[in-house]
Write a structure and sequence with these properties.
The protein is an alpha/beta fold and 313 residues long. The chain folds into two domains: 148 residues, Globins (Globin-like, Orthogonal Bundle); 125 residues, Transcription Regulator spoIIAA. Helix content is 63%, strand content 9%. The protein has eleven helices and five strands. Helix 8 links the parallel strand 3 and strand 4. The relative contact order is 0.07.
Amino acid sequence: MLAYHTHRIKGEPPMSKTRDNLPEVTVQSTAETSALLRELVAHLRQNRTQLRQEWARRITEAKLLTAMSQEEIFAEATSVYDNYVEALETGTFEALQAYARNLSERIIPRGVETHEVVGIVLLLRDVLARSLFAKYQHDFGLLNRILDAYEPAANRIANTVAVGFVQERERTIRQQQEAIRELSTPVLQVRERLLILPIIGVIDPQRARQLTEQLLRGIRTNRAKVVVIDITGVAAMDSNVANVLVQTVEASRLLGATVIVTGLSPEIAQTLVTIGVDLAKMNTVGDLQGGIEEAERLLGYKVVPFGESIQQA
């Protein structure tokens, strides 16, 4: 067993030791921590106006939340401050989490970035710590105990606000991406029972799956019998995406719709051949106009020249 030796400077009081000959560490009790937090909360409530103003001023000086006016910054600083103090007082974070989500919903569309939100929370922590130092500078023992009680709660509060903002930002980004994808793959009803799906740009596996889902929903909703998928605007696709295209054609057929693929490039045609697609089972037409004409023929429509239709009338 290893032996630990301690050396004491002459005149220094003997160091208390544990059974293992190690210095004894004083741990703050839960009751003491609660009492110190109550004293801290009382101080923050008593100095609420001054500390809010100081925090708002520091936010402006640091050039954070620049997308917001001074009045808006002070209003939000007031709400964050009150939620902050409540979390310290109650030890619960549900209200703070709800407010952080609500705040994020309002400020993210205005271009507020993650580092700004983290920055203002850290500034508040600094403002409060400076206030505590000024109050307890003549009693460093009490100051250290209060900071020991405050710091874990402050860290959790900062983490709660930051995580809430990041989660809301990620949700907003996902919604925007979904909207962009839907706009980039519109299912258009040309006439009764006839849909067109023009595809432009790069098709990755995720977009390919979404394309299939949108088309199948469109077929069911519109009771479509013929679908024209135009891929003139697609420069290339890998074998995985080509397989999804083939599966889309088959799934559409199961729903009772015939699919006509138009605008095949030589590269995409080669990909389909390479993966072993039986092109005899895929109805292809050179261009979109020809695809629409073929779809109308399948639906029983007859295109009559305008002059001829007038004479018949």
